[in-house]
């Protein structure tokens, strides 16, 4: 099957699912609003066994909070990633604090988080795009926060 027709089929699958309100329905915490704080690529990564989620492969993804300790999501924070080939990605966090890119992103990647002029930079290259795997309340690096 050619790449083009495969892309077409995935698009069609999503449209059909939308008709059934199963493809990222906005109000019930599915799709882009799902699982804030969880390790997204555990399901959406290349190695994940979850077939339904793997159709929505994410290159990097995570969740940003207003503070390390609280539950309040931070909306409108910019996440800037430069992948190992030098390609730049910029995505904003949504109203549950989630951000993500819906395409593969080669690792390692250089990462920073911006809010206007304020910047928080990860000094070491991120070895994976599964930001919440390290950045969680329990994880060693602590939650991602608004700069
Ligand atoms: C436990 C597994 C699991 C985790 C963890 C998970 N997802 Fe998903 N995700 C799925 C499945 C299954 C689907 C497809 C069905 C659906 O849309 O709910 C999906 C769908 C999506 C979609 C596609 C929706 C659309 O409209 O096309 C996005 C975007 C998404 N997830 C983002 C995320 C983000 C961001 C995180 C982390 C904060 C995350 N997911 C964590 C399983 C997961
Ligand atoms: C393998 C674990 C790991 C992964 C994956 C990871 N990080 Fe980090 N991150 C860390 C550690 C450890 C630090 C602190 C040391 C450093 O800056 O290198 C850090 C620091 C940061 C900082 C600076 C925080 C501050 O308060 O100064 C930001 C911003 C950041 N990471 C964003 C991200 C984003 C966005 C992703 C996903 C694209 C990500 N990280 C993926 C481990 C990780």
Query: What is the 3D form?
Result: globular
Unreliable spans are 1-27
Query: Into which percentage range does the β-strand content fall?
Result: 15-25%
Reported by name, the CATH topology of the largest domain is Immunoglobulin-like
Q: What is the makeup of the main sheet? A: 4 strands, antiparallel
Fold topology:
Elements: H1 3-19, H2 41-44, H3 51-54, E1 60-65, E2 78-82, E3 88-92, E4 98-101, E5 110-115, E6 118-121, H4 131-134, E7 144-145
Parallel strand pairs: 1-7
Antiparallel strand pairs: 1-4, 2-3, 2-5, 5-6
The structure holds heme C (2 copies).
Describe the structure.
- The chain has 147 residues and is an alpha+beta fold.
- The protein folds into two domains: 1-28, no CATH class; 34-145, Immunoglobulin-like (Sandwich).
- It has four helices and seven strands; from the N terminus they run H-H-H-E-E-E-E-E-E-H-E.
- A four-stranded antiparallel sheet has the order 3-2-5-6, with no helix packed on it. A three-stranded mixed sheet has the order 4-1-7, with no helix packed on it.
- A hairpin with a 5-residue loop joins strand 2 (78-82) and strand 3.
- The longest helix is centred in the first third of the chain and has 17 residues, at 3-19.
- It is globular and about 35 Å long.
- The protein starts with a helix and ends with a strand.
- The model is unreliable at 1-27 (pLDDT under 50).
- The structure holds heme C (HEC) (2 copies).
- One heme C (HEC) binds at residues 14, 23-24, 30-32, 34-36, 38, 40, 42-44, 50, 52-53, 56, 61, 63, 98, 100.
């Amino acid at each position: 099957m050619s790449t083009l027709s495969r892309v077409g089929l995935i698009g069609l699958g999503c449209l059909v699912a939308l008709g059934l309100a199963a493809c990222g329905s906005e109000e019930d915490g599915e799709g882009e609003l799902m699982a804030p704080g969880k390790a997204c690529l555990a399901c959406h990564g290349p190695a994940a066994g979850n077939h339904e989620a793997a159709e929505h492969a994410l290159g990097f993804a995570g969740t940003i909070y207003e503070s390390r300790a609280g539950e309040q999501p931070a909306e409108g924070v910019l996440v800037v990633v430069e992948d190992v080939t030098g390609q730049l990605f910029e995505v904003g966090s949504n109203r549950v604090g989630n951000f993500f890119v819906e395409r593969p992103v080669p690792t390692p990647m250089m990462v920073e988080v911006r809010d206007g002029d304020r910047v928080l930079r990860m000094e070491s290259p991120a070895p994976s795009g599964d930001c919440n795997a390290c950045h969680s309340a329990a994880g060693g690096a602590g939650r991602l926060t608004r700069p």
